[in-house]
Specification:
Structural class: alpha/beta
Distance between the termini: 32 Å
CATH topology: Rossmann fold
Helix content: 25-40%
Order of helices and strands: EEEHEHEHEEHEH
Strand order of the largest sheet: 1-2-4-3-5-6-7-8
Largest sheet: 8 strands, mixed
Radius of gyration: 16 Å
Number of domains: 1
Shape: globular
CATH class: Alpha Beta
Number of strands: 8
Strand content: 15-25%
Length: 228
Amino acid sequence: MPDIIFPGPDGRLEGRYSHGPEANAPIALVLHPHPLYGGTMNNKVVYNLFHVFSKRGFSVLRFNFRGVGRSQGSFDQGVGELSDAAAALDWLQSVNANASAVWIAGFSFGAWIAMQLLMRRPEIDGFIAVAPPAGMFDFGFLAPCPSSGLIIQGSDDKIVSEPEVAKLAQRLSLQKGIKIDYKKIQGADHFFEGKLDELTTAADKYIKASLVPTSARAGKGALGGSEG
């Protein structure tokens, strides 16, 4: 997969990109965890999500937020990082003008940024949020959540509270026309050490089910469903 450099709002941003095999391949953007705590686009969860999307035929991009790796700029408390994510999606759409669908995914801090981007970009069709930091960051902006999606959380996470994430998933599920799948992985810590295969399988099953033609999943919500 090629290394890429694309323009961001505060300088150049560094990414990795895999181009889908079809002219109208769906696209996905994957966001990494907190830059001040070692988060990069090479994080194992981010890397695995990237490859799940790629194997499903997506054109997919992961990149380093400002100040990480070769990306220019410095940490901006989430405000600048949201702008970086918007610029990354702009780039991804510019090289996939005929994309059949648009997805966003993120891990921890990256999930928080991903959900904010979801609210600002109506063209996003689906999301995968891994260990979204509910109880640490404000998710009140999801009112209403504009898309169905999958939330994955480890039962033994000592950084992000599983009950708080479960409450977030339940709250979003109450919205009419939106289906939120919640997958709790037993025994998984925040970084899913020893549980990455289970995380990858859950994400892959959800994406596969969601890409079924609309006529085959009538009555199952905007993106269909998978195990919760």
